[in-house]
Amino acid sequence: MALSHPHRPSALKQQNKKHQTLGHRSKGSVAKSNKGRISVKTLSKKAKKELSREQRKHRSKQIRAFKKEAAILRKRGLGTANNPPFLATVVPLCPNINPRKVLKTLAACDKAATITTSSQGIMHISCPRFRQRFSFVVPPVNDLYAVLDSVKVSDTLMLLWPAEELGEAADLLLSSVLAQGLPAPVHIVAGLEDMSQKKKHQSRQNLIKDIELRFPGPAKLYSLERDQDALMILRQIGAQKQRPLYFRDSRPHILAENVEFIEEGSSGTLKIHGYIRGKSLSVNGLVHIPGWGEYQMSRIDSSPDPHPLLLHSRDSEANVMDGGTFMLAESDPALQETLTSTNEVDPMEGEQTWPTEEELAEAEQSISSKPRTKRVPKGTSDYQAAWILESEEEEEEDDDDESRSNMDDGFAPVDNVSQDGYECEDDNEEEYEMTVTDAEGVNYDDKIDYGAEIDALQKLKNAREDAMFPDEVDTPMDMPASIRFQKFRGLQSFRTSPWDPNENLPVDYSRIFQFENFRHTKKRVMNEEKQGALPGWYVVVHIADVPRHLYDNHVSSHSPLAVFGLLIHEQKMSVINVVIKSHSLGHLRPIKSKERLIFHIGYRRFANAPIFSEHSTGNKHKLFRYFQPGSTVVATMFAPITFPPASVMVFRERPDGAQDLVATGSLLSVDPKRIVTKRVVLSGHPFKINRKTAVVRYMFFNRDDVLWFKPVELRTKWGRRGHIKEPLGTHGHMKCQFDGQLKSQDTVLLNLYKRVFPKWTFDPYVARPPPLYTFRSSHDMEERTSGEENTGEQPCQKKAKTVKFHSARL
């Protein structure tokens, strides 16, 4: 009987691969292997509150609904019966455009509208068709500050564009408005009535291109040729999306509808009538008037709305005369914010207490028990030795034999000195000659021509004058470098080396305020709800102790008056840091650090002389001696506290009073502990190179300076690092060790750092610039006249020459 054997596949049999789910197990196989067990990741998801897909979709839907409701409430918060009207600032971009003519067209577009005008020249339109009301303010065309103050509190900016090309004054005006913060814009073209249809279409297309280049979003250009166009503009103002201005929306603010002054001696009470916008206004807080300063309020009165939304003409008299003026709140001296902006400086703060008699006796006993040594010239008598003062360095090095052997100053050590300071003579002492012994041999100086080295150094300075490193400083030859740079220090690493921010602070730092946690304080102040007059109310604010001359200047200037309510701590002084970027319109030459500039930060404007530093993420920031065109820097100065975000504009004042926009930016922080370090780079040149060792000269000019700066690390322009090994001779030569082969054309550098602080140059009162268009046009006439006298060019060539003359003048 034959035996049966099982079938065995050969080695050539086809082997199919197992089913794989893209390199990982499927969900079904994972569930089978777990058999109901829950992994650690699933448990951690519940702890972290991670949402499922359906929960994420539901949360997104809730967020969209919340944002939609907030947008609807924001839109309904303006222009209705119980809210302040839409405030629009009308700004013509050419002096030939009459803004009052535009307002007359808007007022006549709806026969059912009610038109009223306040004593400050603000025109109010109550439009029953749209169930909204509008306010239009026209600041003086030639006053740049008046336009900026009006735009600060406006909801809409109406720009009246000319058909021709914009001038230099219009460019300055638009750049300033965009840098400060742009409300919802409405663009209107004027001067197209007398043009043909073809030129009219071409002018509109050119204006639309210019608007799209300057403003974000799609450009819509309106005209006022028909009444229907005026109605479209009113509908656009009431329906368009409002652009947020955070420094305005987070604070209460009022545009004055009527201003009264009750005189009380040299000062008096200023009564501001107007609508409260933004947040609630507390009578115990402080208010800020741009250009005037901070003041306290004595009371707030409620007044009937003189410009109500009249849906029916028969109700006009009843709505206006309904109710009367009554007091809402009166200030409480116990709760009212003070106007104190600085701390009182205590000159005795930080001083040590006077020691007791036991401590004095113990100190005298310890001094008398120590043997004193003094270095005096050879042959000095006891009386002469008593008049030689001991330096701190000599006292520290009394017990250091190595440092004493390196002192080649012609002084002889005397170890036997009596307690009263006189020298004890020693007959066995021998005189000695000043010699230098080092690794290079005896009498190293005899081999060097020191005069020739000085001449070579002067030629080297002249050769590299144009390509000198910005922070490089020549070592003085008439005084030791250890004295010249005694306030500087060396750092092993600029990024990681420690630096105490409270070390050696100036006296001005005792006058300012500092937050323990600025972010926490800002969050608490912004979220704090104030009790007071609500937004939308028409009130009369009584501002106390206002100087008379400020009110007289306001009456003569005919400019709008804006009032801002301050948040807590915003009247106090501190150190603020702002990030500014160079603006191409007026920044044509470098600005030196500590030069006087005019700052517009949020709702404030003041003059100051800041210091510039780099904008980096470390804890130490290098000082910039100059603010170069096209760069971005951080300006640090003493100024009142302002909670960010806030826009920043920087102007530079000309000798004739005109102001140029040189930089724009934003508020970075309020931090007195921000360390700004001034770097000084001492340079030397390799004299003899032996692989990684080199003899360097021209960095120092005496032996003591080499020993003083020996612990500081060296670097070269080609990336080598090293240290000072030992001095050679008495003229500043030194042997240095590096981490690699040194090139003969390389330069050895030594970095020293010192912290710098801003100066107290805060000036809250800034003079207004001269008239905008009049000043520019007069300069254009001067340039045009000079061009006709000097050259016989065509008008187009004169225009190009005028632009060049402006650049040279700036």
UniProtKB/TrEMBL annotation:
Single GO cellular component term: preribosome, small subunit precursor
Record keywords: Nucleus, Ribosome biogenesis
Leader peptide range in chain numbering: none
SMART domains per UniProt: AARP2CN (SM00785), DUF663 (SM01362)
GO biological process, one term: endonucleolytic cleavage of tricistronic rRNA transcript (SSU-rRNA, 5.8S rRNA, LSU-rRNA)
Positions with biased composition (Acidic residues): 390-402
Residues annotated as domain Bms1-type G: 84-243
Feature: compositional bias, Basic residues: 1-27
Pfam families according to UniProt: AARP2CN, RIBIOP_C, Tsr1_G-like
Region (Disordered): 1-61, 340-429, 779-801
PROSITE patterns: G_BMS1
GO MF: GTP binding; GTPase activity; U3 snoRNA binding
Compartments where located: Nucleus, Nucleolus
Primary role: Required during maturation of the 40S ribosomal subunit in the nucleolus.
Family, similarity comment: Belongs to the TRAFAC class translation factor GTPase superfamily. Bms1-like GTPase family. TSR1 subfamily.
Name of the protein in question: Pre-rRNA-processing protein TSR1 homolog
Lineage: Eukaryota, Metazoa, Ecdysozoa, Arthropoda, Crustacea
